[in-house]
Amino acid sequence: IHAYMEDSDTISGFANKVVGSLPVVGLIARVFNAEGGVGGDIIDFAEFRRRVGNKCSVNESRAFYEFQDRRGKAGDPLYVLLCCWLAAVGAGLLKTEEILQGVARLRISNDIEFEEENFIDMMKKAREKRAKAKADAPKIPMGIRAEKAVEAIYVCSFWKDGIEEDDVRLLVIMLNAVFPSVGSAEVERIVKEKAKSVAEGGSDETSKVLEPKALPKEAVQLQMKDLEFLRKGIIDR
């Protein structure tokens, strides 16, 4: 029922973990599934998109592009799905503020590849820290993950604009495609509550994200190094 995550309590989820724990078999599985999701590996954005896309109906797919027509570049289907990926896979590993600051930067920079790598790195470090502390991952309900996705989409695609009726309709369709187990009635409630909060001036987490914070110095240096490498490659040609 989850389009993007394996439930560890299911037979398939258990089998996936067993395969991932076997040295040779796990290695082979990872070679043929570079997108992640083998054993306890983090499901990366490419695999997330594939899983959601395979579940989408024609009407749901159309909603993503109608939303882009309304919101422009900030409503790009990839941006919307990145917000959903962060909430679906990153909840419990990433702080809400980290998610919102990241998608705020994305709105300005349009550098989705960099933000994806940055978030993957943050999630891996969070997992490593939890493993060292021998702390179990928090079990966050799908409804809460859907709420975080709506918050992220608002910051990325709306910023400070209001959410109109047509936006609500499209958000409900898109969120239902990504979080089918939450239920359409609950998804609609979440989206409408967000629209109402925005209309009333906003009093939640998104109101704290006034301007995207700068990345750590190390992350900026790494990005500049990559850009310089690409620039050099173009000149050499």
Describe the protein's architecture and organization.
It is a single chain. The chain has 237 residues and is an all-alpha fold. It has one domain. It contains eleven helices and no strands. The longest helix is centred in the middle third of the chain and has 21 residues. The protein starts with 10 loop residues before the first helix and ends with a helix. About 14% of the residues have low confidence.
Count of runs of 4 or more consecutive helical residues = 11
**Residue-averaged pLDDT:** 79
Structural class: mainly alpha
Classify the beta-strand content into a percent band: under 5%
Tell me, briefly, the overall form. Answer: globular
Low-pLDDT segments: 6-39
Number of domains: 1
Furnish the topology, listing elements before pairings:
Elements: H1 11-21, H2 23-31, H3 45-55, H4 58-71, H5 77-90, H6 96-109, H7 112-132, H8 142-158, H9 165-178, H10 184-199, H11 217-236
Organism: Genlisea aurea
Protein name: Calcium homeostasis regulator CHoR1
Task: Quickly list its features.
237 residues, mainly alpha, 11 helices
Briefly characterize the structure.
This protein is mainly alpha-helical. Helix content is 68%, strand content 0%.
